[in-house]
Design a protein that fits this description.
about 140 residues; mainly alpha; two-stranded antiparallel ribbon; 4 helices; 2 strands; disordered C terminus
């Protein structure tokens, strides 16, 4: 299963389905890859062995909004935008969705990353690892 689907995208950004495109699966898959790579870089590689990371042990639902927001600002809106300064609503939305991505990313790291360390299909308190942010964000 994927972190985010067209159904999730429609829940958070229904306007993208009013632009003549019915399927954003490819863009969502690219965003998921980005999110997985960022989790591995910002969390796993700092605390655990690089070769042991398995994205399938992450709780997909924890990363749905992050993936949708990443897809919006990195892949979907640039595809829809004309990048002309006058009257391009998609270009203007890029900043909004990038900010939502950053907020959601920090929230998930703050509440703790859910990862099935025992590979038993359940997440308990020992499977939630909080990551302290050492950088001040404004």
């Amino acid at each position: 299963m994927a972190f985010a689907t067209n159904t999730n995208l429609e829940e958070y950004a229904p306007e993208v389905f009013q632009q003549g495109v019915d399927d954003w699966t490819e863009e969502l898959a690219k965003a998921e890859t980005d999110v997985i790579n960022m989790i591995q870089f910002k969390w796993w590689n700092k605390f655990y062995a690089r070769s042991e990371f398995a994205s399938s042990k992450l709780v997909e639902a924890q990363w749905t909004k992050t993936t949708v927001y990443q897809a919006m600002y990195a892949y979907i809106l640039p595809r829809l935008s004309t990048f002309r300064p006058e009257g391009d609503p998609f270009r203007e939305q890029l900043t909004f969705y990038k900010d939502r991505f950053t907020e959601e990313w920090e929230l998930q790291f703050g509440v703790g990353i859910k990862y099935d360390f025992e590979n038993d299909g359940t997440i308990d308190n020992s499977d939630v690892k909080q990551v302290s942010q050492t950088r001040l964000y404004r």
